[in-house]
Structure formats: structure tokens, C-alpha cells
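DM from R.C. (forwarded with permission)

"hey, sorry to bug you on a friday — could you get me a structure for this? deadline for the figure draft is monday and I only need the backbone to look sensible"
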Amino acid sequence: MNASGHIQPTEGNDPSHHNLDPHLDRYAARTEGMTASEIRALFAVASRPEVVSLAGGMPNLTALPLESLAAQMSDLVREEGLVGLQYGSAQGVPTLREQICEIMALEGISAHPDDVVVTVGSQMGLDMVTRLFCDPGDVVIAEGPSYVGALGSFTAYQAEVVHVEMDDDGLVPEGVAEALERVEREGRRVKFLYTIPNFHNPAGVTLAVNRRAEILEICRRHGVLVIEDNPYGLLDFGGQIYPALRASDPDNVVYLGSFSKTFASGLRVGWVLAPHAVREKLVLAAESATLCPPTLNQLVVSRYLTSHDWMGQIKTFRENYRERRDAIIGALEQYMPPGCSWTHPSGGFYVWLTVPEGVDAKAMLPRAVTARVAYASGTGFYANGQGSSQMRLSYCYPTPERLKEGIRRLAGVLESEMELVNTFGTVHARTSSGPETPSPDTA
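My reply, with the result:
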């Protein structure tokens, strides 16, 4: 207080010294890489019905037999409510783990229910595996581009991601070998290879069968674990089921699965199949994270698998998604300007579009949303800011008619952007410091 009785500003009450987050100095160092999506506000607008959203990977649930499911869930609560509404095992309901083993057997996996850990979606499995294996500074090898939720987990545990190129046949074995050798020469330690072999998110490509054994051999030779993430494996449009990496190398592959794409994403039921010693630590990690996955949700999935023609339901999903894939590919061929290229997925949810050189897909996104179409820009699928000329287009949710209209709108925005580039040159958007946290808009 000065002589006139006024309070003198001090560092404690000077507004210029106030931070918007008073807890900033308290956060752990690992939170530095946790970056909120810069486009989340845009997607709040994109959720409006007049906007065709090609951004989020939401399954199309309209084909589910909701009346039958409602009756089954009512029976479940009445008959097993005292179990379903109670705490359960951190490893998951035994009957469901047995059924999961039967599902994985379709991919050639021979597994025991004791080695399955049920998770709250496969995202929880990714987080636990990264937590168990990665120290700060460790290296994770991943496809470039890669799933944004995986990149977020790796960054949260302060691991460094080294991307390996893909082509139309998926992960390139020579690229994996070169990346491992380079990191080893630099004296750094690779903890695992993370891969989505089937109908890749976001690229849409599938790892060729003849490459799978080669990649496994390369990883064994370098003493590197393989994390196989396979949420889309049963969604091949021709009905083919590819052999899992885990089937060929059960001692060196941790397998992640999910019911989010083949049943209902809102139930959040996934699983991890791990070598026996790893499974023990996964159970401990699960207990510390959630105590146990929701028992009721597991019983819903288990009863669905028991009482419903779930393979017939997957066939229906395949047909619906194939129709949408055909619609978006046809629209891309009809409307996209010269210089664009895209992948041709044989299953799953996504097309990966590359736009002409000089166009920044991230910078273009606000103008696309203004034109009532949204997509996921490619930079979110790399750990290092790459991908400015790429975008992920999700065809799983909109109707074929909406997909065609969305691509027509997107092509118009892209043509205008190309004119601007030709006139004024390229202006790149500011790249983010790391991968964005996952959300329904980028899942």
C-alpha cells in the first residue's frame, strides 16, 4: 500500500502475471506432448446436419437389430443384473474371453482365454501396452501415416515415433529393416513396431500376406515386439479373412481387438491377447486404471454373440460399407481435379486422399467446413507434422447419396484452393508440436 492508501501491484496480484491455467507449473513433464485438436471447434460446426462429415470413423449402426437387442438387454438385467451391475474381474468375464478366442480363431490364432484381457475399447489396450513397455526416449516404429489414438498414447508416455512408409500393399518390409538399423546405429532403443495390417486407419490399405512373415522375421532378428491392432479385420468386402500376425508368432506379437467396428462402439469393449508373462502385467495395469471393465457391457456383448447371428450381422455391415466405398470411389473419379490420387480399400472405413502439390489440406479445412463438408487433415496422423497434402475420408457413416454430395463439395473447394495456389503460391498452416489427442472426429 502506498502513501495514498492504494494497493501497489505485486507479482501475486498483477494481472500481467496471471496464467489462464493456474496449475501449469504442476503438470508432469509427460503432459507437454498432450495437444488438443486445433480443429475441434470446426468439427463442432461440422456436426450440423447440413454439413457432410467425411471426418469421423463412426460405425453405421442403422443395420443393428435394435428391437431384438432391447429385449435381450432387458432380459439380461432381469436375469443377471446382480452380476452385471457389480464389480468384476480386471481381466474380464470368463465366458466372453472364451468367445473372443473363438473369434480370433477365424484369423488362425490359437489362444487360451487366460491370456486375454478385456479392455474398455482397444484404445485402453494401446495405452496399457505403451505404459508397460515405453520409457521416456524409447522409440516406437509405426506406419506413416498412423492411427491418431496410437500416436497420442505414444506421445503421452514420451516415446518417439519413427514412421515407416507404406505403399498399396501396406507396410514396406525394407523400410522397417532400414528404420530399425538406423535407430540402432544412433544408440537408441526400439520397444515395438505398431501396425494396423488390415484396412489401415487412415490409409485404407492392407498388408500383403507375403509381407507378413518377412516383417515378423525382421522384428525377431532385431529383438523388437510387434503390436498388431486389428479392429477392422472381419470387414473385408469380399468376405476374406486375413491371417493374423499373432497366428504366426504368438511369443512376439501382442494382439489388440475390438467390438467397436463389428458390433457397437458405444459399449467400449475391446481386448488384448498377449504372451503369458505380459498378460500378468496387463491385468495389474488394468486394475490400476479402471479396477475392472464394465461387467454389464461385457455381458451384453457375450449374450449378443450367443443369441444372435453375429457373423450374418457382419456380412450385413460388409455390404453396407462396400456400397458406401463404391459410392465414394465413384464420386472421387467423377469430381476430383487432376493431380489427386487416393487409395482403393478392399474393406474397413477409410480412403486416403493426396491432393496436388502446394495445397495445404489443413489450411483448407476451414474453407471446406464453410462449404459444408468436413474431413480429417493428414497432419493429425503423423507424429512429426507431415501429411499437409493428405486427408482421410471416412465413408462408413454417411449414405451413398451424401457421400457423393460431400465429394462434389470437396472438389469445388479443392479447385478454388488450387487456383489460389497458382495465383499466390503456397502458404502452409502452422504445424502442431505433436499428435493430437483422439476424439470421435478423428477416431
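R.C.: lifesaver. Residues 310-335 form the longest helix (26 residues).
me: no worries. The radius of gyration is 23 Å.
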